Amino acid sequence: MTVSVIGAGLAGCEAAWRLAQEGINVKLYEMKPEKYSPAHKYSGFAELVCSNSLKAARLGSAAGLLKYEMEMLGSLTVPCAKENSVEAGGALAVDRERFSDAVTAKIKSHPLIEVIGEEVTEIPDGTVIIATGPLTSGAMAERIKELCGEGLSFYDAAAPIVTYESLDKEKVFYASRYGRGEADYVNCPMNKEEYLAFYEALISAEKVQLKDFETHPFSVYEGCMPIEELARRGVDTMRFGPMKPVGIDDPRTGRRPYAVVQLRRENSEGTLFNLVGFQTNLKFGEQKRVFSMITGLENAEFMRYGVMHRNTFINSPELLNSDFSMRQHPEIYFAGQITGVEGYMESAASGIIAGTAAARKLKGLEPVVLPRETMTGALSAYISDSFNSGKFQPMGANMGILPDIGMKIKDKKLKYEAYAERAVEALKKELERVGSQSNS
Asked: 35 in helix, strand or coil?
């Protein structure tokens, strides 16, 4: 038995790993380094493009619960992330290259995984998992369109990265919002006058003209909204978003700034930092001019400017089952952002689900039925719920997609911890159930 997995991103690597761990031979196709998408630059697998943060680490959060469940399901990427983490307060952030290298090494050293370095232009026969990502290349994109019908599209953006050495240390300070975790974020405080000047420069700055802009509707997913588009919604919009000062006091004044830009460590050495929430489509020269107006970034050295690119995803509620297999072609699975799960770990989780489902089906075993109370189960239900067809938009992990817990808990922290405890227990019971059946 051999399964073809197309794409060695987060989802493809998790799918290949789960299949191989279940004793299934895998052919993992990856077009890098022979060919790169517009957003990818590194030759390794599981490349992180937009940000190096995998979001909150604590179990009582949606992102933390998702990662915990993924480890229970045999994740490859979560342990690799923990082993290559960088300080980021209460979040799990990674050194991108070391994380990619770790995942690549694990995949390439597995005896049941054959890595094939070529671009796939036709959907292979037999069982296949399509994890080509939101930037699927031309010929394969056409095959997917033929298989699924018209795809949906939106635009995605990445934030700039600057060197720590080039920051003005007299003007910035370390702190985490509300003092959570270690003080791992560099904060750039701005007064009202500085903020308003920055706002005016930002909304009038020149943007990059997107390819095919005139022929494709301009639709930006909220989770990756370019900072300049957010600013155009109103003068104070950024102060309620990535520049919100709530929970941060400037130690030199003892007061809360009017606005704050946070920088998050990009690598383990702490030499590079990214501008949190500053995804952008401004021209490179404009990024240098406008973002240098931020307090402490007057002489910042930009090692990577923000970029924007088009993403596509299929209408999963019409096409997929909750195990990410196609309703009309059950031997074909999809995984990753192309399914409409939004976020790094959400994409990786879908790969685990698809890989596990395909392996167990091939081995004639009972499927793992992810409880609706779990974050993985809730995401699976969301992408396969026909109610969402026609109005389908990407969805990331959040407590709102879980069933109500059925008890009154006023404290949000305690409530979310209760949700997490319920989810862990539900998943544990399901894994025990399928484990006992597999061993009988």
From this structure: coil
Cβ atoms within 10 Å of 63's Cβ, excluding its own: 23
Cα diameter, the chain: 71
The domains of the chain are located at 2-151+314-439, 161-309
The Cα 220–Cα 217 span in angstroms is: 10
Burial class, 253, CB count within 10 angstroms (exposed 0-12 / middle 13-18 / buried 19+): exposed
Residue 174 C-alpha from the chain's centroid: 25
Q: Which CATH number fits domain 161-309: 2.40.30.260, 3.40.1190.20, 3.40.50.450, 3.40.50.2300?
A: 2.40.30.260
Dihedral sign, CA of 395, 76, 32, 91?
positive
Joined together, the tokens standing for residue 256 give 């809360």
Strand stretches in 249-403, DSSP E = 259-265, 272-275, 302-304, 308-313, 332-334
- Counting other chains too, the contacts that 170-179 makes at CB distance below 8 Å and 24 or more residues apart are 171/295, 171/296, 172/263, 172/295, 172/296, 173/250, 173/251, 173/252, 175/248, 175/249, 175/251, 176/89, 176/90, 177/89, 177/246, 177/247, 177/248, 177/262, 178/247, 179/247
pLDDT band at 429 (very low <50, low <70, confident <90, very high): very high
Q: What is the pLDDT of residues 201-250, one digit of tens each?
A: 999 999 887 654 333 444 555 567 889 999 999 999 999 999 999 999 99
Q: Which of 369, 368, 349, 372 is nearest to 419 (CA)?
A: 372
Contact at 8 Å (CB) between 46 and 81?
A: no
Cα 427 to Cα 124, 361, 413, distances in angstroms: 33, 20, 21
Q: Which CATH superfamily is domain 2-151+314-439 in?
A: FAD/NAD(P)-binding domain (3.50.50.60)
| Both structure tokens of 177 | 């919002």
CA dihedral 106, 349, 389, 216 (to 10 degrees): -50
Q: How far apart are CA 226 and CA 224, in angstroms?
A: 6
Residues 289-340: pLDDT tens digits?
A: 999 999 999 999 998 888 776 667 888 999 999 999 999 999 999 999 999 8
Tokens at residue 357, please? 């489902």
